[in-house]
Design goal:
about 240 residues, alpha/beta, Metallo-beta-lactamase, Chain A, six-stranded mixed beta sheet, 14 strands, globular, binds zinc ion, binds fe (iii) ion
Length: about 240
């Protein structure tokens, strides 16, 4: 399975998962249709599935157009079926969904929204974390408690250290300011920031990160308890 990163809107990432033998593809969180269509056409692929981590417009904006154009099926969390546009296939927490070489575990990780899920492609060790875990940050807590978000991040923390993290936004450099403020002596963080700046200066995405790297640098993953996490989340909201 090959993973192509597609930049969408201002700072969103959509991801195209490709079976290079059959040329079939899955798109994760198509923010908008056009850049996804361009990539599909340029690589001569057949889009079979659309997966959404959550219902926000910048993650589902391309659903309907792509579904219509390619006759693709939309996959989303069963408890969010009322707000995922064009949903066809309902998946549950802890379920494994499979089609051909595409095989993913679904984890319900509430916090940013009530029905947020992530897709863990365990054979490739790749996690599509939507707006729950970012590189050097985490999503805002809109529909849940801080405790729920904290617990969702704990679940992710238990995955293998070399898990690649593909998140919903290019926020890494912005996030680094907050991490640095609260963790100024962290050498791994300083090195990561240097790398991030280098990547951005040549127009490359800072994604994927790895879980091991995030555990060493991401202040939200490093917070030890809900109280500490809540405090940081509140500070970040007003940063
Ligand atoms: Zn969102
Ligand atoms: Fe988003």
């Amino acid at each position: 399975m090959k993973i192509e990163i597609i930049k969408c809107l201002e700072d969103n990432f959509s991801y195209l998962l490709i079976d290079e033998i059959t040329r079939s593809a899955v798109v994760i969180d198509p923010s908008e249709a056009e850049p996804v269509i361009n990539k599909i056409e340029s690589l001569n692929l057949k889009l079979k599935f659309i997966m959404n981590t959550h219902h926000h417009y910048d993650h589902v904006g391309g659903n309907k157009e792509l579904k219509k154009l390619y006759n693709a099926k939309v996959i989303g969390f069963d408890q969010d079926k009322h707000r995922i546009p064009g949903i066809d296939i309902l998946v549950k927490n802890d379920e494994i969904w499979k089609d051909g070489i595409f095989e993913t575990k679904i984890f319900h990780i509430p916090g940013h929204t009530l029905g947020h899920v992530c897709f863990y492609f365990f054979k490739e060790n790749a996690l599509f974390s939507g707006d729950t875990l970012f590189s050097l940050g985490c999503g805002r807590v809109f529909e849940c408690t801080h405790k729920e978000m904290f617990n969702s991040l704990q679940l992710i923390k238990n995955l293998p250290l070399d898990t690649e993290i593909y998140c919903g936004h290019e926020y890494t450099l912005k996030n680094s300011d907050f991490c640095l403020k609260h963790d100024p002596e962290n050498k791994v963080l300083l090195t990561k920031i240097k790398n991030v700046k280098n990547l951005l200066s040549v127009g490359k995405p800072t994604i994927p990160s790895t879980l091991g790297e995030e555990l060493q640098t991401n202040i939200f993953l490093r917070s030890k308890n809900v109280k500490n996490f809540s405090k940081l989340r509140d500070l970040k909201d007003n940063f």
